[in-house]
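Regression report. Comparing outputs from two consecutive submissions.

Submission 1:
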Amino acid sequence: MHHDFDIATAKEFLSAYESEGMGADRNAGFLRSLILSNRPPRGGGIGWYSDIIDRGKPGTTDVSHILAAADAAPREEDAATLRDFANRLRRNERLSERQDAFLAGLL
């Protein structure tokens, strides 16, 4: 679904990313650039903005158990993978079946 750019909505979503500790996330950076330029997205940015709005604000999925597993992971590679999956879920992205199975194996 296409969403018309609204600066107030962009600020609201950026605030949600920052309050979840996701201020360095690529979506937060994109929203920040739109806000700073005070211009609507162009080209591929139109779809990116709409995807962010369609997924909803971050933090609606509880990932505390995944982050706890990342902290306890014996290998840094596993910890990084767990953090990546947690961030994807916090952005309300879906994991593929393969990713879900891999996540379950790591937990």
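Submission 2:
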Amino acid sequence: MSENTKENYQQRLNDLNKNAKKKSVWESIDRPIRPLIYQMHRIGLRSRYCCCGFPYDKEEEPKSHSLDTYVQFYTPTKREEVVSFFTLCDVANQCGWRVELTFPGVWTVRYQQPGMMQNYWDKGNFERGIHSYELNLIHINKLTKNLEKIPSKVKEITIIDGNGDIKEKWGIDEWQVEPKQNHFINVEDVENKIVNI
């Protein structure tokens, strides 16, 4: 890694961590995928990490690392969460997404454009065209709209920052991204359009 690349990386990391304890995790969730995160929580699932998979205006961190759209979520433990999990698997499959076990306790629902990974591996980099975000955004919207049809399982939503798990629960002190504060959403406020997501 060149000195210039190291400096750029360190600056991006510093910017990401600046005032982390004063910010809500909601600010770190990519704006185009926030409605999907809300819908997943509303039906009883709990997200861990996510990425919309494409750059957008005023994003917190440039998408140099992402090739696809995904949401990691915790393995459901309560009966109603398990029902939501199987519902999500069915709906995601119908919408062109796939659900996969990431590692014990964590699943990922993922949309990937056809041939995207092969293109990346063949060329060694990922060049985006002006239209490259469109399929990802359409699939985010499609899954979100289908989850909207499922009745709410909770009245209040707490969204946590998965970076806190790595440092606090797993004890990995060298994790470089500082966790942000939990974000709380009242489902009734969203349904009554008092709060926008």
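Expected: both submissions complete independently.
Actual: both completed, but the second showed a warning that disappeared on reload.
Relevant detail on submission 2: The mean pLDDT is 86.
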